[in-house]
Amino acid sequence: MTKRIKISIDKAEAAQRIKRIYPVLKEAYPNATIALKFVNPLELLIATILSAQCTDKRVNMVTKDLFKKYKSPADWIETDVEEIQNDIRSTGFYRNKAINIKGACEKIVEDFNGKVPATMEELLTLPGVGRKTANCVLGDAFGIPGITCDTHVIRLSRRLALSDNKDPVKLEFDLAEIVPKRNWTKFSHLIITHGRTFCMARKPNCPDCPIAKYCPAANKPGLW
Ligand code: SF4
Q1: What is the DSSP string of 138-192?
Q2: Pair 75, 69: CB distance under 8 Å
Q3: DSSP state of 210
C-alpha cells in the first residue's frame, strides 16, 4: 500500500495555481455545469436533497416523474410522508429525505411566502439543507456565487494543494479565500467535472491530464 504523504499548503501559491488551472479547465470543459436536472429553484432544492449518498444519474431518473407529480411546496405538504418515501425510495436514505423535503416545503410556505429563499442564511433554516445544498441552490438556481464542496472538490483540492481540509465547510472557507468570488460556481463545476473525467479517486489519469504540469500530485501515488 502506498504511504500517504502529508501535503503542505501555501495560500499564495494555491491562488496562483488556481489562476493557471482555471482557464485550462474552462477550455477543457466548456459545458461544465450541474448534472442535476431542474427547471426552478424548488426542483433544484429537492434534487440536491435527494442527491445525498446517491448518484446524480439516479436522482435525475427519479425526478423525471417526481416533478410531474409534485410541482409546488403545497403538493409536497399535502402528501403523506409515507407516500413521499415510497416515491423517492430508490435514492436511498428515503425516510429522512422525505421528512426533510416535507419540512423544508412547510417552512418555505410559512416563512418565505411559498418561494425558495435566495440567501445562505435563510436556506440554512430549511430542514435537510446544509451549506453544500445551499451553495448549490444559490449558484445554480439564483446565479449567486457558491462553492459546492462535494467528494470531488475535497479530493482534488488536496491533490492540487489548494487545501488539506476534508471538512467541507472548512474547505469551502479555504477555497473562498483563494478563488475569485465571481468564479465560485463555475470553479465547482469544473473541478467536479475534472474529478469525474481525469482525476478519479482510485486511479487518476495523470498522463493525459490537461493540468498535470500545475499539479503537485501528478504521477505521485503517495499524494493521491
Ligand atoms: S495530474 Fe493527476 S492528480 Fe493532478 S489533477 Fe491531474 S489527474 Fe488529478
Answers
A1: HHHHS--------HHHHHHHHHTTS----SHHHHHHHHHHHS-GGGHHHHHHHHH
A2: yes
A3: T
Q: What is the DSSP letter of 75?
A: H
DSSP state of 218: T
Is 162 near ligand 1, meaning CB less than 6 Å away? Answer: no
Q: Is 215 in the pocket of ligand 1 (CB under 6 A)?
A: yes
Using the atom order of ligand 1, give the atom closest to the CA of residue 210: 6
What is the grid cell recorded at 100?
A: 426533510
**Ligand 1 center from residue 36 Cα (angstroms):** 25
pLDDT tens readout for residues 118-166: 999 999 999 999 999 999 999 999 999 999 999 999 999 999 999 999 9
Q: Identify the structural domains of the chain with CATH numbers, from first to last.
A: 11-31+149-217 (1.10.1670.10), 41-141 (1.10.340.30)
Helix orientation angle between 56-69 and 41-50, rounded to the nearest 10 degrees = 130
Give the residue whose CA is nearest to atom 8 of ligand 1.
Answer: 199
Q: Is ligand 1 within 6 A of the CB of residue 24?
A: no
Tens of pLDDT along 162-218? 999 999 999 999 999 999 999 999 999 999 999 999 999 999 999 999 999 999 999
Catalytic residues: 132, 150
